[in-house]
Design brief:
Elements (H helix, E strand, L loop, with lengths): L11 H8 L5 H11 L1 E3 H7 L5 H13 L3 E6 L5 E6 L1 H4 L2 H14 L4
Antiparallel strand pairs: 1-3, 2-3
């Protein structure tokens, strides 16, 4: 390996974390992956410590990166559903491995 700065366009780990690197992004992806479709309120209920502002930002980022699809329905009250895109679904092996690793290593009281 060469010394010097890591180029995210060359290093696959650096590239992945540049796309999905936020504190909440992996958890949001896991929740959507687990349930197939999630509404904003469902995500907020499952993540009570996240602020509305941060949740909205994270969802916008994941949508911008092409990992989730936002479907808005013209109803009153408005209904918005989030699901994984094909690109997002391609992360499922990583999500499963992260969940398995966490289950194995989570501190037990």
């Amino acid at each position: 390996m060469k010394d010097g700065p890591i180029d995210p366009l060359v290093c696959p780990i650096s590239y992945t974390t540049s796309i999905v690197g936020g504190k909440w992004q992996w958890v949001i992806l896991w929740l959507i992956y687990s349930e197939k479709i999630q509404r904003y309120g469902q995500l907020k209920k499952r993540l009570p410590t996240i602020s509305d502002k941060v949740l909205s930002q994270q969802l916008r980022t994941l949508e911008h990166e092409g990992l989730i699809h936002r479907q808005e329905y013209p109803e009153i009250p408005p209904r918005v559903e989030y699901s994984l895109t094909e690109k997002g679904k391609s992360l499922h092996p990583i999500l499963e491995l992260m969940a398995a690793w966490g289950s194995q290593h989570i501190p037990r009281g």
